[in-house]
Write a structure and sequence with these properties.
With about 350 residues, the protein is of the alpha/beta class. The chain has two domains: about 100 residues, Aspartate Aminotransferase, domain 1, CATH 3.90.1150; about 240 residues, Aspartate Aminotransferase, domain 2, CATH 3.40.640.10. It binds ligand TLP. The site of ligand TLP has 15 residues, from helix 3.
Length: about 350
């Protein structure tokens, strides 16, 4: 099977497994796991923020951030197709008691322009409306097709938000993909954000875990919420050891996934009934419209599965994600499989 459903399917490398077996560990709830501490320190250093916290998943990192930044009854401004809004099971309502004000990014990229955010802003003190408590960004934007928000764009949003006294959380599940595509360090892509969540278990290939980074005060509060959510993981150095390798080594090879995604996108653009702007594919996510094939996304994915290719279908679209465990040969095979189905 050629598995293009997500970059979450990557398996740990032999080096990761060796590092996990040899990891020095302690009880992380006492703050005594040296490998977890090294991972957190290294993340804080890479993002040039004061502190970092190792959490079980991207969802946990994002939801802790929403909790720490907001008070119940506030509103969070967020792009309509964002992960925090769509795919975290309504947890912001459950844990933080906030509502979302979603905004559609006019250019389709998933990255809101400041004027789009400003139009949704609600000040404190209204008799009727919930005040804006937080703005969430996503880089790369998953359902924007892995699109990248530049450092300048992020800086403009953060500067304006600061003037309004609103914090910014960045869902940087794939921020290293953004950094490679933009040839910009992750620190610059997240410089003025109050917090960032970065997944180790997607393109970076670790089996488990995410990092939440921010100010010391923010991380101290985040630590309480991680524990309350059952995220105190004891000898977590066993998984943090893979995370350290993911952080140090994996970004160096992400350009290969991006090249494969482009190869895939240009191959797909040739097929009848498929609609995609291949030029817009700059990281590892390829989303294409299949309505011209007379099939829905899920239906086409069922047919692809019979041909040995796994992809995700939703509505009229299909998503394919490249990662370390798919080669350029696999990409050529996936395109041929689709061609066989459509011919
Ligand atoms: N994304 C998964 C699915 O949940 C859709 C995927 O296959 O892409 N932020 C972003 C932008 C994400 O794409 C994801 C996972 C998360 C957060 C959540 O991370 P986890 O799965 O570790 O909770």
């Amino acid at each position: 099977m050629i598995d293009l459903r997500s970059d979450t399917v990557t398996k740990p490398t032999p080096e990761m497994r060796a590092a996990m077996a040899a990891a020095e560990v302690g009880d992380d709830v006492y703050g005594e796991d040296p490998t977890v501490n090294r991972l957190q320190d290294r993340a804080a250093e890479l993002f040039e923020k004061e502190a970092a916290l190792f959490v079980a998943s991207g969802t946990m990192g994002n939801q802790i951030a929403v909790k720490v930044h907001t008070r119940p009854g506030q509103e969070v401004i967020i792009e309509e197709r964002s992960h925090i809004y769509n795919y975290e099971l309504g947890m912001a309502a459950v844990l933080s008691g906030v509502t979302f004000r979603t905004v559609n990014s006019g250019d389709g990229s998933g990255h809101l322009a400041w004027h789009e955010i400003a139009g949704a802003f609600r000040p404190k003190g209204s008799d009727h409306s919930a005040e804006t408590g937080l703005i969430c960004l996503e880089n790369t934007h998953n359902f924007g097709g892995g699109s990248v928000m530049t450092a300048a764009h992020c800086e403009e949003i953060c500067g304006n938000a600061r003037d309004l006294g609103v914090s910014i959380h960045l869902d940087g599940a794939r921020i290293f993909n953004a950094a490679v595509a933009a040839e910009t360090p992750v620190a610059d892509l997240a410089r003025y954000c109050d917090s960032v969540q970065c997944c180790l278990s997607k393109g970076l290939g670790a089996p488990v875990g995410s990092l939440l980074v921010g100010s010391r005060e923010f991380i101290e509060e985040a630590l309480f919420w991680r524990k309350r959510m059952g995220g105190g993981m004891r000898q977590a150095g066993v998984i943090a050891a893979a995370g350290l390798l993911a952080l140090e080594e994996s970004p160096k090879r992400l350009y290969e996934d991006h090249a494969n995604a482009r190869r895939l996108a240009f191959g797909l653009a040739e097929l009848s009934g498929i609609s995609i702007d291949a030029e817009k594919v700059v990281t590892n996510i390829v989303i294409f419209d299949v309505s011209g094939t007379g099939r829905s996304g899920p239906k086409l994915c069922c047919e692809l599965k019979e041909q040995g290719v796994l992809a995700s279908g939703f509505g009229n679209s299909v998503r394919m994600v490249t990662h370390r465990d798919v080669s350029s040969g696999n990409i050529a095979s996936a395109i041929s499989a689709l061609k066989r189905i459509l011919d």
